[in-house]
Predict the 3D structure of the following.
Amino acid sequence: MPGRVVAFSQRGGSGSVSGLGNATTDALGAATAAVTGDEAGSVTVDAGVASLHDTLSFTVVPGVLDHIALTPASASISPGEFQSYTTIAFDAAGNTIGDVSSSATLSISLGGTCLATSCTALVDGSYTVTSTYSGETDTAELDVSGP
């Protein structure tokens, strides 16, 4: 039916979209809503006119890599102990792309050693651990002190 107002709204899901609202049906009785993904995850959208409703479910996927985060941001260990690290990738909107620890490269300032996803040092001091993944970097502080 042409000329009817259809209300589009997000009904549920773990993601979010913008651009929903009202649209008027065209000569063929169709109404459309152009939405933009704001937060990655599943989304369910409801389309309703009068007492008629229908839903559409889809997934908003993360965008391209924007930055990484190395955790923990700071840690303390005794000399010779290893500290494990996790590198998480994010898009520009802060959506998690995923754990990229196995593909990231860890390095530590002079005097320390990193193996896979862990770093250590044998001498007391403050060290900077750097994670690098696809041209993005983040750092963490490692304090080494002990007997």
Remarks:
- The chain has a mean pLDDT of 94.
- Residues 40 and 60 are 5 Å apart (CA to CA).
- The chain has no helices and 16 strands.
- The two ends are 81 Å apart (CA to CA).
